[in-house]
């Protein structure tokens, strides 16, 4: 009788759920230090827009049941449990343009975006 040996193959590391750029971390530090002191930014995904999904950001006092807290570059962000699968590997940035400024997301799971850029699909 042959005994099968179970090998423990090395697993490749999973990408982080969410990472932030230095610009996003700096902006979050500024927000957390001023009117948002004691709160955390919570990122979720909702059904909305032309392509089907959009990013939603709210400030919350603490992570909810099942939420994940990601800490990168010294700042923490809460991720809605339901959004986790859509956000794996996403990079959150803060961009300042001539007529606007805000957080943006580079999500490797996106398959497309609507023309206005407000929604995406995976």
Please summarize what this structure is.
By secondary structure, the chain is mostly beta strands. Helix content is 13%, strand content 39%. The chain contains two helices and nine strands.
What does this structure look like?
The protein has 122 residues and is mainly β. A hairpin with a 6-residue loop joins strand 8 (112-113) and strand 9. 17% of the residues are buried. It has a single domain, classed as Hypothetical Protein Aq_1857, Chain: A. The chain has 2 helices and 9 strands. The radius of gyration is 18 Å and the shape is globular. The protein starts with 17 loop residues before the first strand and ends with a strand. The longest helix has 12 residues, at 22-33. The chain has helices at 22-33, 84-87, and strands at 18-20, 40-48, 52-60, 68-72, 75-79, 90-96, 101-106, 112-113, 120-121. A 4-stranded mixed beta sheet has the order 3-2-5-4. Strands 1-6-7 form a 3-stranded mixed beta sheet. Strands 8-9 form a two-stranded antiparallel ribbon.
Class from secondary-structure proportions: mainly beta
CATH architecture: Sandwich
Number of domains: 1
Share of helical residues: 10-25%
Q: How far is it from the N-terminal to the C-terminal residue, by CA?
A: 48 Å
CATH superfamily: HesB-like domain
Unreliable parts? none
Overall spatial form: globular
Number of strands: 9
What's the overall average pLDDT, rounded? 83
Structural key phrases:
globular, 4-stranded mixed sheet, Hypothetical Protein Aq_1857, Chain: A, 13% helix, 122 residues
């Amino acid at each position: 009788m042959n005994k099968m040996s179970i090998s423990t193959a090395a697993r490749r590391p999973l990408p982080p759920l969410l990472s932030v750029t230095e610009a996003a971390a700096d902006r979050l530090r500024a927000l957390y230090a001023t009117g948002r002191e004691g709160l955390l930014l919570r990122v979720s995904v909702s059904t909305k827009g032309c392509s089907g999904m959009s990013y939603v950001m709210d400030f919350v006092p603490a992570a909810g049941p099942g939420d994940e807290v990601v800490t990168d570059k010294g700042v923490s962000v809460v991720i809605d449990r339901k959004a986790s699968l859509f956000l794996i590997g996403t990079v959150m940035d803060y961009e300042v343009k001539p007529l606007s400024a805000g957080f943006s997301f580079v999500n490797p799971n996106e398959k497309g975006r609507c023309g206005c850029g407000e929604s995406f699909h995976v």
